[in-house]
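[step 3/7] inverse_fold.run input=structure_tokens len=319
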């Protein structure tokens, strides 16, 4: 019985094939029986009518059973998923709480050691403090990624993409005075999209500088319309580039034991853009570095408004 249920639950083709085979066998066998035992055409016609109703009844019972079985399996799967999600959320909260407490203790002791030591031991204490800060940041990013994955997306709204990017770049210049920040933006570009697009840009800009090994790192943001209501955002850097194995992980959207990425920032940006219905790509920058390319989807057909833009010369600002 279980193998039969697996057969019908395996693919729609299996259900259609089984139903078609049952119908053919029914028609062939019952037509021969009618031809063999019906003495008059009137009797044959009546038997054919009864046979048709029987077939309808049997088919309804079979379809009802298959649908009911599928609904029960789906309900059981949903219950298991809900239980697993609840356990994951509890585990995540416990881990973050304990991690924050432990990191606070480590940070305090590292600062005390740094104040008491000098020379090479002091550098060790500073390294401990720096790595501890990275753990705190990783904890916050893990929460952000969990929220993106599990929480419902906010409704789309009209966003002035140019103003949003200008604000992000101004904050980036202020926080990184040794960086060169360039922008190639139209005068105005209003899109209807998920308001969390700013969070995705924050992650990309932070990643572009954090992993950049240049003395004066350069980040360039370019925005352009791609036709059919789509908008492309390029975030380019002149760093060592994103490793190929990490590119494959991000573009495929899953990890394996020997196939994984190193950080959460790009994952957060990718997850946000994919949830918006957009695409996430990584290409080489010339002559050095990487370009993360986001393609935002057009607005929904109902009340669609195409991006409104006016071209202007590229803007380059250095901090």
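[step 3/7] decode complete -> sequence:
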């Amino acid at each position: 019985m279980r193998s039969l249920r697996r057969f019908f639950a395996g693919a729609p083709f299996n259900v259609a094939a089984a139903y078609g085979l049952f119908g053919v066998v029914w028609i062939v066998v019952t037509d021969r029986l009618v031809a063999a035992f019906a003495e008059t055409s009137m009797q044959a016609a009546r038997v054919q009518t009864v046979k048709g109703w029987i077939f309808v009844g049997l088919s309804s019972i079979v379809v009802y059973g298959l649908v009911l079985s599928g609904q029960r399996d789906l309900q059981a799967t949903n219950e298991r998923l809900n239980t697993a999600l609840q356990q994951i959320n509890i585990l995540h909260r416990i881990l973050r709480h304990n991690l924050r407490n432990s990191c606070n203790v480590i940070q305090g002791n590292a600062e005390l050691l740094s104040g008491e030591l000098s020379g090479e031991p002091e550098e060790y204490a500073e390294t401990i403090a720096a790595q501890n800060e990275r753990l705190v940041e990783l904890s916050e990013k893990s929460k952000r990624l969990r929220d993106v994955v599990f929480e419902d997306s906010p409704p789309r709204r009209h966003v002035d993409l140019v103003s949003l990017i200008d604000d992000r770049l101004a904050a980036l210049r202020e926080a990184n005075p040794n960086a060169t920040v360039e922008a190639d933006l139209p005068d105005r570009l209003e899109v209807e999209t998920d308001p969390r697009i700013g969070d995705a840009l924050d992650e990309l800009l932070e990643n572009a500088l954090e992993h950049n090994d240049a003395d004066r790192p350069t980040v360039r943001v370019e925005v352009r319309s791609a036709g059919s209501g789509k908008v492309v955002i390029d975030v380019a850097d002149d760093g060592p580039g994103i490793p190929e194995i990490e590119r494959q992980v991000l573009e495929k959207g899953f990890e394996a034991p020997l196939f994984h990425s190193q950080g959460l920032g790009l994952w957060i940006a990718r997850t946000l853009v994919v949830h918006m219905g957009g695409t996430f790509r990584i290409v080489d920058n010339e002559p050095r570095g990487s370009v993360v390319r986001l393609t935002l989807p057009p607005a929904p057909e109902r009340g669609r408004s195409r991006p409104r833009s006016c071209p202007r010369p590229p803007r380059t600002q250095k901090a």
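[step 4/7] annotate
Helices lie at 2-10, 12-37, 41-116, 120-150, 161-175, 197-210, 244-252, 265-275.
Strands lie at 157-160, 180-184, 189-193, 218-227, 230-237, 279-284, 290-296, 308-309, 315-318.
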